[in-house]
Amino acid sequence: MSSSARPVVVFLTHHLPWPARSGGRVREAQLLQRLSTRFDIEVVAVSKVSDFDSRHIEDATRYGVRARIFATQAMEQDHVVPLIRRHSAPAARDYLTYRLRQPAMVVHVEGHYLLGLVPEQVRPAVLLVEHNIESALFEQRAAQCPTPAERATLLREGARTRCDELTAWRRVRIVGAVTQEDADAISAVVPDADVRCLPNGADHLGTESSPPDTAFRESAQLLFIANLGYEPNLRAARLLLAEIFPQILRRCPDATLAIVGSDPPAWLVKAGHREPRVTVTGWVPNVAPWLDAAHVVVCPLTVGGGVKVKVLEALARGCAVVATPIALQGLRHLPPGAVMECADTPAVAEACARLLACPQERGQQRARAVQAARHLPSWDLAADVLANTWSELADTVASATEPA
């Protein structure tokens, strides 16, 4: 235990939470900055963008969180699943072997694919949090593959990933999921596991309206917000540009589309330059003005898991939201009609066009979103749930290390 008598938490993740440029970073940042007054937190980040993350360590320090950044070193062993290969970091493994020799620490791991970096003898005391059930994402991709060969490859990788997930879930003390749906799915296959729902909050953007911005209103009648470095989001952006938006333009020829989020690839940036009615911004420091200006927020994900921060943000700002069933995972507790749920691409396009063309219906959908937002947890509540889990683990670890 630290000199301040706060429980020590080693928080292993695959990026520095600050700046909060993606849904996963938002979650970690919101939780850690609330919990740093109650726990002595050290973030160990195994990062694919280690230079970028290293430049922002002071952001962690500002919230009272210590951080160490380790660059990933991709493994070449074919017998190891790609998700684990991409997050290999021998230096991080060596550091954790040294760091975790000291007793009475809580070890929090974000994703089963990082568990191999934690010493074997420590794993039975670990809290492992899954943002997604990764094997399910392989199955979703496989279902959409055009060729049997591609489908077989994805199903094979999904099966290997499921084996790694099951092994990890069985070895740790507690498994956390960000939605009750995922928690139930994990419990169904590992019934002896201690599985908890550790939810996201939804109030990080606040409720104060942004000042009107004509430029935003003109360029973002239709809005998609996402971390564009993440393949499922990029898949949705491609679908928007290739299929959904052209269908909308046939009914609403003056419509505009803004795609807002970090790390857009070159082809997407070029599309924004080429198409006069499309704006691609890259990362923006605050998405609230874009949400407030948008007529419709669209989330046409066909692959995904967990809960989507982009949907939480839109509901919290009272936006009219059109989304696919995948985008609404973890939100089945909301009042019916809070989001216009559409099963396929034509339905998404039709719903967006209808809302763009009808201010009255759009206003009604906004009102439903405002009502739904009242059912969403706050980050303070989410932090309390995680704090209780950490405290329970700290007591367990402390008891195990006390002299007989």
Task: Please provide a written account of the structure.
By secondary structure, this protein is of the alpha/beta class. It has two domains: 217 residues, Glycogen Phosphorylase B (Rossmann fold, 3-Layer(aba) Sandwich), CATH 3.40.50.2000; 160 residues, Glycogen Phosphorylase B (Rossmann fold). Helix content is 45%, strand content 15%. It has 16 helices and 13 strands. The strands form two sheets. Strands 3-2-1-4-5-6-7 form a seven-stranded parallel sheet. Helix 10 links the parallel strand 8 and strand 9. Helix 1 packs across helix 16 and helix 13 packs across helix 15. It is globular. The mean pLDDT is 92.
Which terms would index this structure?
alpha/beta; Rossmann fold; 404 residues; 2 domains; seven-stranded parallel sheet; 45% helix
- The strand line-up of the biggest sheet is 3-2-1-4-5-6-7
Task: Estimate the mean pLDDT confidence.
Answer: 92
Q: Give the name of the CATH architecture of the largest domain.
A: 3-Layer(aba) Sandwich
Question: Percentage of helical residues?
Answer: 40-55%
- Secondary-structure element order, N to C: EHEHHEHHEEHHEHEHEHEHEHEHEEHHH
Percentage of β-strand residues: 5-15%
Number of strands: 13
Helix/strand layout:
Elements: E1 8-13, H1 23-35, E2 40-47, H2 50-54, H3 57-62, E3 66-71, H4 82-85, H5 90-99, E4 105-110, E5 126-130, H6 134-143, H7 148-171, E6 174-177, H8 180-189, E7 195-197, H9 214-219, E8 222-225, H10 231-251, E9 257-260, H11 266-274, E10 278-282, H12 288-293, E11 296-299, H13 309-316, E12 321-323, E13 340-341, H14 345-357, H15 359-373, H16 379-401
Parallel strand pairs: 1-2, 1-4, 2-3, 4-5, 5-6, 6-7, 8-9, 8-11, 9-10, 11-12, 12-13
